[in-house]
Fold:
Amino acid sequence: MKSLFNRSFTSATQAHLMRIVSIACVVFVIFLSSCSTSSLTQRGIPLGEESSPPPHYSMVFVIHGDGDYGFHDPLGNVHRADEEALMRAKRVAMQNPQAEVFIFHEKPRKHTLLFFPRRDGKFYYYRQGRMMVTESYWRDQGPSRFDTEVKLYNQFHAAEQPQPVRVFLYFGHEIPEYDGAGYDASYSHRTFTVRDLAEELKRITPDSTKFDLIVLSTCFNGTPHTIAALAPYARTIVASPDNLHLSYFDLQPFEQLDARLHDGDIAGFAKNFALQSFDRLTEDIQTAVTVAVYDVDRVQGFLHAVDSTYNHTLTALKGQKPGSVGHCDCAEDSAYALPGISEGVDVFYRPPRFGRSKHKLNHSGWECRRLSK
Amino acid sequence: MLARTVFGVVVMMFVLIQAGFAGGKDDIQKYFNDTASKVKATTDPAEKRAILDKSLQTMSKALDKVQKSPLISKEDRAGIDQFKATLKENQDELTGSNGFERVPDAQLNAFSEYVVQNMEQADKTITISLVTALLIVIIIILLV
Structure:
């Protein structure tokens, strides 16, 4: 009886030990995979095997999702702005067989089983309307910020001639013009400013060819400082000088670009895109809706005229508490209300339906900063 | 038995931590969204106005209580001040005080949506830590 007990005890102990070892192995594998610096790449079609013609369009989407991007629609349904922007970007990629499309989704830091960090970036590359590459990667933690994205862009970018129409789209919260700490919810000490974005654009335009169109689907980036910072890399910029609801600009005009851009009129396309976004936003949004299109060459006069004033303001605002810095239409500040303020800017504006600004009838298309009273 | 209990506690910890990460600000947004749903669900303008008024007042009270808590940092107190200022403007517009035109009865549904969107946008610029957001949510639950 005792021997039978000993045997069953020993076998139970062995089974228990085996279970522990198995669990330890699984945890170890998770640990190794989470610590690996290499990327997790999947290819739909091996690059090089496809004999595709050179792309007519090259589009880069950067979708920031490391923050609070939840919002409700008028029916009360909850949405995640970054996930929806990603879905729409993928639809654009699939609807444009003549394009190469890069999509970078910057995700929040998450852990498996609380301890094992997961990759916080996801890259998608499309050609001929099909996804060629999908890759999880570690976002750059160094000062360059976009190092990994730039490497991936350079790795897959089709450098064939003739140059395609180039479009860059950024989706996220307001890109700070100074300080920039706390932009990523997961990395509170990291900073991100307009200068960082401009640096990224510089690194993916090595031959000084400008993007034909840059779209900033963010709040409050239609400012003299932001447009001036991105001006060396763009011919036309679409941005919102005021709040922009998280449902973002409407990407539908980017689907089937061949049909919409057959005349090559990018500036005209940008205005149609801005108008369509404005129309869609005003259907559902009760707060202000402002979409501006900047002709980069034509706004240079105004930018040069207000450059030092704006920089002086930014310097004065550094170190102020976030709550004490407000926004205003530049036209309401005599230092910016210059005769050339409207030159090169097309503005689609509707005031908020409620609140103090509901009777404000116009917007100059330029937003400025000031200390709140 | 002990192993099961420990396993249960660990699973509970995962769930609570995940819920904590997802909660906070999302719950504050949900609070205003629920208010808008209640406003739209009724046809009586007086009732709509009462629902909005009570909702804004409850949030103001919760913010007052949280602001007095010793657990709150100086930065979060400043964030709560901004939050309160935005709420106060909404309250003033609802009642037509402090220079605001009173929201017409026919526009109360739209105003409830405006409050949701305005708060969601304010939420992006107002800095409140997760702990403070969770405290606000807990106090709202206690007040409602």
Summary: The two ends of chain B are 39 Å apart (CA to CA). Chain B has one domain: 24-143. The helical segments of chain B are 2-22, 25-41, 45-68, 74-95, 108-125, 130-143. The interface with chain A takes residues 14, 17, 25-26, 29-30, 33, 36-37, 75, 78-79, 81-82, 89, 93, 100, 103, 107, 110-111, 113-114, 116-118, 120-121, 123-127 of chain B (CB under 8 Å).
